[in-house]
Amino acid sequence: MNTIKKALNESAAMRWGVLLLVGFVLSVNYYFYDAFSTLKDDMRTVFGFTGTDYGLFASFYSVPNTFLLMAVIGGIILDKIGIRRTGFLFVLFMTIGAFLTAYGASDYFNNGGFGYELMSSFLPRFSPELKVMLLGRFFFGLGAETTIVVVSKILVKWFNGKDLALAFGLKVAFGRLGSFAALRISPFISNEGTNLSSAIWFGAILVSIGLLAFLVYMLFDAKLDRQIQPVNNASTTDSFSIRDIIDLLKNRAYLYIALLCVTFYSAIFPFNHYAPDFISDKFGLSSIESGNLTSFLPMGTLIFTPIFGALIDRKGKSASAMIFGAITLLITHLLFALTYTPPLIPIILLGIAYALVPAAMWPTMVKLVDENKIGTAYGLMYSIQNLGLFVFPLLAGAILDATNPGNPEISDYTATILMFAAVSLLGLIFALLLKFEDKKKGFGVELPLNKK
Ligand SMILES: NCCCC[C@H](NC(=O)[C@@H](N)CCCCN)C(=O)O
């Protein structure tokens, strides 16, 4: 008797199992990205970091992705050599970067350990620990961004047509879980800077466990490829040409979504790097208290992004959701900058924006580009986004130093947060332009994602 064997991605249990595995890789990625925001003040007291030093450290994540176009190159590599090899390579970079960062902040290194002399011998404006941490942040960013592109492609491979927006929403939720854990655990381990180095090592160890999780995923991926190869061959053999990038940039809807992406995230991620310190300074809280308060943000989005994702799968309205999210973001920053509204209220508003826009924006890509170019499309979008993630933490640190001379313990963040409000306003303009373009060209951005 002939039995038809179902491919692995036909099984719902397998799909959600895979999401759990790659979701963990994202959680540790975001953990390490956000672990430093509650340590800003500890790094000021232990290493003497100024606002600009801290901003530079946060920005260095984006250097490879913006200036070396690594997120685009990672996306191209992904479309060319496939999920397993690309994923392994970039999760490995992420791990190396996390360990280098922790090494730079370690007591061993700072007591004259291996490489200390070399790192002291050039660019005396920057301390040796900052230089090694910057190098670590560089490699971490190089690996982390392409890893997110890889995970997006994994989800398209396993979930397309089957709750894709929900899966993307859950993927984002896994990232937020990592941020939540970082905001809670990092200041707790650091204990006002007495265990600063242990807090960073803890993050690096988590990232290395993420590498092990990816190795396990590779086994499932190989099995699925053996099952679907004859049907899906096109998606792995299509070769990259520079035309792909030109075509993407000529697609106005793609351009608007990429510009919304850079402005929206520039008003959130760089803000998050400063949020615990800002809340602590403006409302007189300890770093653990302000970390706890800020952690409501990823916690809320963790719950609401999948819910909004599921709604968009079924009801559509992605462009309208992005507009609404952008307006909410603008209101949030104005409240933070200009009022003493209890911080939980703007944090809740920020959570709505931070859940709604990503839930609508990322899966919309399948409406705008072909699946076999999706790695390149996401990669390019990340490189554009990383330009903002490079510029704005630096700018925020520089504005902070300029408006608070002498690196004081308590800083006035008004000018810094108003800068984030201005960036949010730009995001709103691009969200509106996207909606008009969709109306004109009929991409179907407002339609549900689920196939009937
Ligand atoms: N399918 C894409 C989901 C991306 C989610 C998005 N993350 C980013 O935009 C990253 N490029 C930057 C992440 C920085 C932390 N590692 C998000 O909403 O988190």
UniProtKB/TrEMBL annotation:
Q: What does this protein do?
A: Lysosomal dipeptide uniporter that selectively exports lysine, arginine or histidine-containing dipeptides with a net positive charge from the lysosome lumen into the cytosol. Could play a role in a specific type of protein O-glycosylation indirectly regulating macrophages migration and tissue invasion. Also essential for liver homeostasis.
Protein name as annotated? Lysosomal dipeptide transporter MFSD1
Instruction: Extract the SUPFAM superfamilies matched here.
Output: MFS general substrate transporter (SSF103473)
Which terms are listed as keywords in the entry?
Lysosome, Membrane, Transmembrane, Transmembrane helix, Transport
Of which family is this protein a member? Answer: Belongs to the major facilitator superfamily.
What would you give as a GO molecular function for this chain, any one?
transmembrane transporter activity
One cellular component term from this protein's GO annotations in UniProt: lysosomal membrane
Q: Where in the cell is it found?
A: Lysosome membrane
Give yes or no: UniProt keyword Flavoprotein.
Answer: no
Q: Looking at the keywords, is Transferase present?
A: no
Recorded catalytic reaction(s): these are: L-alanyl-L-lysine(out) = L-alanyl-L-lysine(in); L-lysyl-glycine(out) = L-lysyl-glycine(in); L-alpha-aminoacyl-L-histidine(out) = L-alpha-aminoacyl-L-histidine(in); L-lysyl-L-alpha-amino acid(out) = L-lysyl-L-alpha-amino acid(in)
Q: What membrane topology does the UniProt entry give?
A: Multi-pass membrane protein
Q: Where are the transmembrane segments?
A: 12-33, 53-78, 87-106, 132-152, 164-186, 198-220, 253-275, 295-312, 319-338, 344-365, 377-400, 412-434
Xref: InterPro entries: MFS (IPR011701), MFS_dom (IPR020846), MFS_trans_sf (IPR036259), MFSD1 (IPR052187)
Q: Which organism is it from?
A: Carboxylicivirga sediminis
| Subunit structure of this chain's protein | Homodimer. Interacts with lysosomal protein GLMP (via lumenal domain); the interaction starts while both proteins are still in the endoplasmic reticulum and is required for stabilization of MFSD1 in lysosomes but has no direct effect on its targeting to lysosomes or transporter activity.
Ranges of residues in domain Major facilitator superfamily (MFS) profile = 15-439
